[in-house]
Amino acid sequence: MLDGQIHDIGKVGETISQVKEQLEADLGRELTEVCIAAAGRVLRTVTTYVEHSFESDREITQEDVYSLCTMGVEKAYEEFQNSNTDTDMKFYCVGYTAMRYYMNGYQMGNLEGHKAKNIAVDLIATFLPDDVVDGLYKAVELAGLHVANLTLEPIAAIQVAIPEKFRMLNMALVDVGAGTSDISITKEEPSQPMA
User: Where is the signal peptide (predicted)?
Assistant: First the structure.
């Protein structure tokens, strides 16, 4: 590993295998899936706003919120592709965070269950180069594991270290690593990763 990117996939895969075997021995069960977090060294972010209107007021479902966020991720990816003309590198969207939801023009913490004609979201999407993501997946595969979830190190760290009820206190979590340092800032609830 160098600067948060895998340079020797075989050695990293071997190390993952050793850790996996030790965990399996300690737990007395086989591990098949793993959640991984990528460093943000070459992280790119796009913040966007998207809204959706219904024909009339209706109860907002979990599926409505998911669809709204999916629309936001798609819009963020289009914006990213349009602004990323200076490189031939391909990027994956590796995560997103809904920063603020809106219902009929008013900010709302959770849309689900409310009645509304119009819903919207401010969303931040994060992108990493495909070679970074592919290297992580290959090393995990060599260890006989399947990736169940991919997130970013600062997001994973803040979810573990700062309870959700304290995330509106405008905090920063700094992760100083061997090759990269990540900062995750909580501001008005969601965490915002920075490299």
Answer: none
